[in-house]
Design goal:
With about 150 residues, the protein is mostly helical. About 60% of the residues lie in helices and about 5% in strands. The longest helix has 22 residues, at about 100-120.
């Protein structure tokens, strides 16, 4: 008898991920941001006043360098980030978030936090901590960028 594919973890994770993505896109639409753009702003916000390359931003966001380059080009056009040559690496271009970018990032994080809270509402604070731990372990096992823990609930 065939296995019920709908009960397999990869399928279930994909379904949750797809629905979360749709809801996040809806929350970001009024701000004219994509997931990749939000990921770039969020990573640059953490690094501020430092800078990251498009390649590093892509790795941290789980998208290709080309996709991140497209995302950062749109952010550049809106004055949300600036790009400048790295003073020590001649061909490397560093990207930094601007004040306007930080302000939009705060608005975007507030909008997406509501989506996250609604999605996680059925879980207790302890279950959320455990879930984050398991997800970080899976990310690490699959060689996906794992951000440092911030011990959120």
């Amino acid at each position: 008898m065939p296995e019920d594919f709908g009960q397999r973890l990869p399928y279930m994770m994909r379904m949750v991920s797809n629905e979360l993505s749709r809801r996040l896109e809806r929350a970001l639409r009024p701000l004219s941001l994509t997931h990749a753009q939000l990921a770039a702003l969020a990573q640059l916000g953490l690094e501020s006043p430092g800078a990251l390359t498009s390649s590093e931003l892509g790795r941290r966001a789980g998208v290709t360098t080309q996709s991140m380059s497209t995302a950062t080009a749109a952010l550049l056009d809106r004055g949300l980030v600036v790009r400048a040559p790295d003073p020590t690496h001649g061909r490397r271009l560093d990207i930094q978030i601007t004040t306007a970018g930080m302000e939009l990032l705060e608005r975007a994080q507030a909008a997406t936090k509501q989506v996250e809270e609604r999605a996680l509402a059925p879980l207790t604070a302890e279950q959320q901590r455990e879930f984050r731990t398991v997800l970080r372990q899976l990310m690490s096992a699959m060689d996906v960028y794992v951000p440092e823990s911030d011990d959120r609930t």
